[in-house]
Design a protein that fits this description.
InterPro entries: DUF5648 (IPR043708), WbsX (IPR032719). The protein is α/β, with parallel strands linked by helices and about 550 residues long. It folds into two domains: about 10-20 and about 180-190 and about 250-445 and about 480-545, Glycosidases (TIM Barrel); about 40-175, no CATH class. It has 15 helices and 22 strands. Strands 12, 13, 14, 15, 18, 19, 20, 21 and 22 form a nine-stranded mixed sheet that branches. Strands 3-2-4 form a three-stranded antiparallel sheet, with helices on one face. A hairpin with a 5-residue loop joins strand 13 (about 270-275) and strand 14 (about 280-285). The chain is globular and about 85 Å long.
């Protein structure tokens, strides 16, 4: 259970320093890494030195090199192109004007060659690929000119440019105006090797052996006598997956989930990853992750791992990472996952690791981080990736732990499971964009589908007593009385608005991490359920403009 927000004020102070922005142009691996990204990536626009002209590239390393040479990155939204040809694609060429520092783009090889042969231009080659005809989700991209400069203009801005005196110079092809990379956190412990302490409490409270769905199925009243404790009139019928109460160690389970998620446009799962130091140390609670890797349709989605190195234990299973096991843990992640063909990559090609908790590393505690040991862990991850694959990583830290300090080993922040202490989901949705402003630089945005830990009553949270007052219940449990899928849609619209207006670094600026696919004991579940069907996935697909045939429950 990764929820740690609001309980880490002291820890956040340790990290409250400006984030370090690592420029991909400073890494020897950058160009080769970005070539491994086959999905559309943002077309970057830069102003040349002295505001003399314009320059465009898909390659972040090239953009950063240009910026280091006097150009300035513009936070314009031109669209998303691919770096590789695809069925139905056409190349877009970049042409340099020799007389002054400016460029133009062209969809015509003949124009590129003719200008090159004129002596006043240099046809530099292909900058990227657009669709030759309109595809679902695409709009036309144009070249426009006012007689002294050329601009690249999305269809939605064409009239505004014409009003400023620009004429249409020709089409460049069809591109995606938005192309969000949306994924969900996956809790891969619904299996016999999962949380034994929780299952022992289920046995004690409900009398069932080996039931990793205990509490959830009891609140739903599905296949067992209904037991909603203090909330007998509340509807918990959503607490049953559409595919039934499953075993996530079975590849067939993951195949169904991959199908549902990918058809709604989700592009990745992020798996919680735990470490157990017993017996020299090994990864823990990995059955769901391993089943994903064995799924016949695994290539339909990417995945990443999210190390949750907690300072606590689940019963007698410690989740702490001792300092003398850091290298082993890092090597395990590199050996088992980073080399997988569908491991999640940022727009600049770096494999991504989102760290959920660092307080269990080295001598960390619930209220303090061992900064030196944490830096050793991120360094070890980078060393393994460099030695095994010749690649650099993009490593981000859970926003609940604050902004990463300079030199901490993190490239930025990801936010994940959130609970608003106002107890209002509407307030949470309305406040999300303001919340994002607390985290400068690289940010992997998030959206929480909900939060409700009442199914943990008696099995993971001590019950406050049969005669507990509402105040006592609210002190023990977290939930929203005003939660609705419509309000979840409002939250998603606010996240998209923040992306559209963003001036952040582009590496993960269009990434959204949803909490969660299947945090059923905590009320964070977008996985189709018996009551709501595909409603959560439908909202995500609609509000974040995702492609896909649509979720089938």
């Amino acid at each position: 259970m990764p929820y740690i927000r609001r309980a880490v004020v002291a820890v956040a102070l340790l990290f409250a320093v400006a984030v370090v922005v690592v420029r991909p142009g400073d890494r020897a691996y950058a160009a080769d890494q970005q070539g491994k990204v086959t999905r559309p990536v943002p077309l970057l626009e830069l102003r040349t030195a002295g505001d003399a002209g314009w320059f465009w590239t898909l390659n972040e390393a090239e953009a950063n090199s240009a910026a280091n040479s006097g150009m300035s990155l513009q936070h314009t939204r031109l669209g998303y192109l691919r770096a590789q040809p695809f069925s139905g694609s056409q190349p877009i060429y970049r042409i340099r004007v020799l007389a002054r520092p400016t460029y133009l783009l062209s969809a015509s090889k003949q124009e590129c060659d003719t200008l090159d042969q004129s002596g006043g231009y240099d046809c530099e080659g292909i900058v990227g690929y657009a669709a030759a005809s309109q595809q679902p989700g695409t709009d036309e991209l144009w070249r426009m000119s006012n007689g002294s400069e050329w601009r690249v203009v999305p269809e939605a801005q064409r009239a505004a440019f014409a009003a400023k005196g620009y004429r249409t110079d020709g089409p460049l092809g069809y591109v995606y105006p938005t192309y969000d990379q949306v994924g969900a956190i996956y809790f891969g412990s619904f299996d016999a090797d999962g949380n034994q302490d929780l299952m022992a409490h289920v046995k004690s409270v409900y009398g069932r052996d080996g039931d990793w769905w205990g509490g959830v199925r009891d609140f739903a009243g599905s296949g067992v006598p209904v037991n909603r404790w203090h909330w007998p009139q509340t509807d918990f019928s959503d607490l049953e997956p559409s595919i039934g109460y499953y075993d996530d160690s079975q590849p067939a389970t993951l195949e169904k989930q991959i199908s549902a998620a990918s058809s709604a446009g989700l592009s990745y799962f992020t798996f919680y990853w735990y470490w157990n130091p017993a017996g020299g140390g090994a990864e823990q609670y990995i059955d769901g992750l391993k089943a994903f890797l064995k799924a016949a349709n695994r290539s339909n989605m990417d995945f990443s791992v999210m190390p949750c190195l907690h300072p606590w234990s689940n019963g007698d299973v410690s989740l702490h990472l001792p300092e003398d096991q850091i290298d082993k843990a890092a090597k395990t992640i590199a050996d088992e996952y980073l080399g997988q063909p569908n491991y999640l990559r940022a727009n600049d090609g770096r494999p991504m690791i989102q760290v959920c908790d660092t307080r269990g590393i080295g001598d960390g505690t619930a209220t303090s981080v061992d900064a030196e040991a944490t830096k050793r862990f991120t360094d070890a991850l980078r060393t393994e990736a460099r030695n095994e694959y010749g690649e650099d990583l993009l490593i981000t830290l859970n926003a609940d732990l604050g902004v990463p300090a300079s030199g901490s080993g993190f490239d930025g922040t990801q936010c994940q499971g959130q609970y608003d202490t106002s107890r209002s989901f509407q307030h949470y949705a309305d406040d999300q964009r303001a919340y994002f402003t607390n985290f400068p630089g690289t940010l992997m945005r998030c959206a929480s589908s909900g939060f409700d830990d009442r199914p943990r009553d008696g099995i993971a949270i001590a019950d406050p007593g049969a005669n507990a007052t509402e105040q006592q219940l609210e002190a023990s449990f977290h939930w929203y009385d005003d939660h609705s899928i419509d309000r979840f849609g409002t939250l998603l619209a606010n996240v998209q608005a923040d992306i559209d207006a963003s001036a952040r670094p582009p590496a993960v600026d269009n990434f959204v991490l949803v909490y969660a696919w299947n945090e059923w004991h905590e009320g964070g579940h977008i996985e189709p359920n018996k009551r709501d069907g595909c409603a959560y996935l439908d909202a995500i697909q609609a509000k974040l403009h995702l492609l896909g045939s649509g979720c089938a429950s």
